[in-house]
Amino acid sequence: MPELPEVETVRRGLQPFMEGATIRHVALNRPNLRFPFPENFAARLEGRRIEALARRAKYLLAHLPGAATPAEAEGDEVLAMHLGMSGSFRIETPAGSLVPGVFAHPRSDRQKHDHVVFHLDAPRWGAVDIVFNDPRRFGFMTLLPAVDLEAHPHFRGLGIEPTGNRLDGAALARVFRAKAAPLKAALLDQRLVAGLGNIYVCEALWRAGLSPRRAAGTLVGTDGAPTEALEDLARHIRETIADAIEAGGSSLRDYRQADGTLGLFQHRFAVYDREGEPCPRPACHGRVERIVQSGRSSFFCPACQT
């Protein structure tokens, strides 16, 4: 499944084309993705302007001001989109499709999986089509009232975002205090930190020199204050996510950026999927090991991650 940096990379690729655009027409090539589309989904979107394209955890959020006619909906709504396992977007303009780069799968083999097409009138670009392609159909889209977004089951209880300065040692200390759960499990708990996935947790823990087996609560002082190691971990999480976004995310299996190109961060992995290789940390003579925690592979160096 695409992780937060991949979703953020897609958001940034779509943003110049979608923000400020009017949805002229929506073509649904099937009645459902992972879930059925909401009732009158296409009709409720047509004529609406996309005010902003945001992200919460691994969801893309298109903010739509009040409906075109009062009979269609009341108040502002949010088009929430999830990529699932293999979902991706393709941008088509009068000048051609934005699909440069090398693909994990031949493009022509996947056009039959173009399930949703948003026909937009974009201020800067004119007629633009945003195509959602999803071979496995684990992605989904839904329309939600903006005022109820945070209370919706998809978003209720989500933890702090791991981007920006809000994620610091103090924030992690509040959610880690007295937790006996392994550090890896705590970081993957979406109720504590929203959007972190397996790849980037492994990488951040390596950067911080912390074992995925270590109890999360041991990084919090008896007074509830973050230890120096926890402050370092918060910084390394932010930096790992930022580096991955800058590199365009990772390309594992089907993930691709909004313009069709593959991400490059996988070439920077220090430990993820590098079982048996020498630890890349200078002066460390350990080798990367793989263990299974809660059904997920954890890659780490036991020599320098304690």
TrEMBL record:
Q: Where is the Formamidopyrimidine-DNA glycosylase catalytic domain?
A: 2-139
Q: Which domain of life is it from?
A: Bacteria
Purpose = Involved in base excision repair of DNA damaged by oxidation or by mutagenic agents. Acts as DNA glycosylase that recognizes and removes damaged bases. Has a preference for oxidized purines, such as 7,8-dihydro-8-oxoguanine (8-oxoG). Has AP (apurinic/apyrimidinic) lyase activity and introduces nicks in the DNA strand. Cleaves the DNA backbone by beta-delta elimination to generate a single-strand break at the site of the removed base with both 3'- and 5'-phosphates.
**Keywords, comma-separated and alphabetical:** DNA damage, DNA repair, DNA-binding, Glycosidase, Hydrolase, Lyase, Metal-binding, Multifunctional enzyme, Zinc, Zinc-finger
Q: Molecular function terms in GO for this entry? A: 8-oxo-7,8-dihydroguanine DNA N-glycosylase activity; class I DNA-(apurinic or apyrimidinic site) endonuclease activity; damaged DNA binding; zinc ion binding
Catalytic activity as recorded in UniProt: Hydrolysis of DNA containing ring-opened 7-methylguanine residues, releasing 2,6-diamino-4-hydroxy-5-(N-methyl)formamidopyrimidine; 2'-deoxyribonucleotide-(2'-deoxyribose 5'-phosphate)-2'-deoxyribonucleotide-DNA = a 3'-end 2'-deoxyribonucleotide-(2,3-dehydro-2,3-deoxyribose 5'-phosphate)-DNA + a 5'-end 5'-phospho-2'-deoxyribonucleoside-DNA + H(+)
Residues in FPG-type domain copies: 270-306
Concerning InterPro entries, the annotation shows: DNA_glyclase_Znf_dom_DNA_BS, FPG_cat, FPG_Glyclase, FPG_N, H2TH_FPG, Ribosomal_uS13-like_H2TH, Znf_DNA_glyclase/AP_lyase, Znf_FPG/IleRS
- Subunit details: Monomer.
Q: What is its EC number?
A: 3.2.2.23, 4.2.99.18
Q: What is this protein called?
A: Formamidopyrimidine-DNA glycosylase
* HAMAP family in UniProt: Fapy_DNA_glycosyl
Task: Give the family this protein belongs to, as stated in its UniProt record.
Answer: Belongs to the FPG family.
Question: Do you know which CDD domains this protein is assigned to?
Answer: EcFpg-like_N (cd08966)
Please name the SMART domains in this protein's record.
Fapy_DNA_glyco, H2TH
Q: Identify one Pfam family in the record.
A: Fapy_DNA_glyco
Residue numbers annotated as active site: 2-3, 58, 296
Organism annotation: Aureimonas endophytica
State its cofactor. Zn(2+)
